[in-house]
Amino acid sequence: MLLVMDVGNTNTVLGLYRLGDGNSTDAAVTELVANWRITTPAKQTVDEFGVLLRNLFGLRGLEIGVVDGIAVSSVVPPLDSTLRQVCEVYFHVKPLFIEPGVKTGLPVLTDNPTEVGADRIVNCVAAFERFGGPTIVVDMGTATTFDVISKKGEFMGGAIAPGLGISADALFARAARLPRISVKKPLKVIGTGTVDNIQIGLYYGYIGLVDGILERMIAETGPGTKTVATGGLAKLIAEGSKYIGAVDEMLTLTGLRIVYERNLDRHRKRGTVALENKQPHA
Questions:
Q1: Nearest to 256 by CA among 70, 83, 87
Q2: Where's the active site on this chain (predicted)?
Q3: Number of domains in the chain
Q4: Are residues 145 and 62 in the same domain?
Q5: Which of 114, 162, 257, 268 is deepest in the core (most CB within 10 A)?
Q6: Would residue 119 show up in a list of annotated catalytic residues for this protein?
């Protein structure tokens, strides 16, 4: 089985795929067996993170020994060494990190392609596989990214905005009399209390940000442009958006699977899949 990990600044999303022997893009032979969302383990040791993963598997009735491939997209470089060690010590597998030199099938036509985050690359790979192009991917995480894919399947560029959570935290931190609130769709647009005033401003203000950027991007890419949102807040914002056409919460995991499969033969030839000579970790 294939374990995929999308490591973000706030959350880490994991998925476990059972891959078929045939055309692995066919749902009949490829299955997402389990998925998890956890807080990114910024300060955990290799053993602490390894135990956490083993417990997550155990709660689903799974053994970590079923994993024979791992693909990782990470935007937290200080964690990469820890992640590599976890993969090797607990899973006896050398992971495939999405980084320069990895075959993605997605030409990156930006000023400096190495600056583009791995999560943005795999999102676009999955979106083009599903929707074709032109397509815009909106990923709502710690930051909200807008990524534009051309009709030919090229990464054209995009935009980055502060995430909704950051906006809410900044309001609470900078305004002494305003309370911290949960972000949700408000029942009305004209608030009569402090809490609903804040919820209205955050929710509809953020929809305005998302739709404002999408409207201008679609004006450049053409009226046939598809749009897909992913990330923890994608469903919430998509409910009120005029321009988000689809929500796919598993988009990043799907992209990681696709990129792994495109590199599978080369990855195995280099002898980096299984660490057969290591004994199981106690």
A1: 70
A2: 119
A3: 2
A4: no
A5: 257
A6: yes
Q: Would you say 216 and 229 are in contact if contact means Cβ atoms under 8 Å apart?
A: no
Single out the catalytic residue among 68, 119, 196, 265: 119
Q: Using one digit for the tens of pLDDT, what is the confidence trace for 115-148?
A: 999 999 999 999 999 999 999 999 998 899 999 9
Q: Helix (H, G, I), strand (E, B), or coil: what is residue 49?
A: helix
H/E stretch holding 138 reads: strand 135-140
Binding-site residues for ATP, in ranges, read 6-13, 142
Asked whether the whole model's pTM tops 0.70, one would answer yes
Handedness of CA 19, 234, 36, 143 (dihedral sign): positive
* 82, 197: one domain: no
Cα dist from 272 to 32, 112, 160, whole Å: 23, 28, 34
Identify whether residues 94 and 202 lie together within a single domain: no
Residue 276 lies in a domain: no
Query: Taking a C-beta distance cutoff of 8 angstroms, is the pair 68, 95 a contact?
Result: no
What residue numbers bound the domain in which 161 lies?
A: 113-251
Task: Give per-residue pLDDT as tens, 79-91.
Answer: 999 999 999 999 9
* 220 occurs within a structural domain: yes
Asked, for residue 280, whether it belongs to a domain, the answer is: no
Binding residues: 6-13, 117-120, 139, 142, 194
* 121 and 229 in a common domain: yes
Whether 117 maps to a domain, the answer reads yes
Cα(4)–Cα(13) distance, integer angstroms: 8
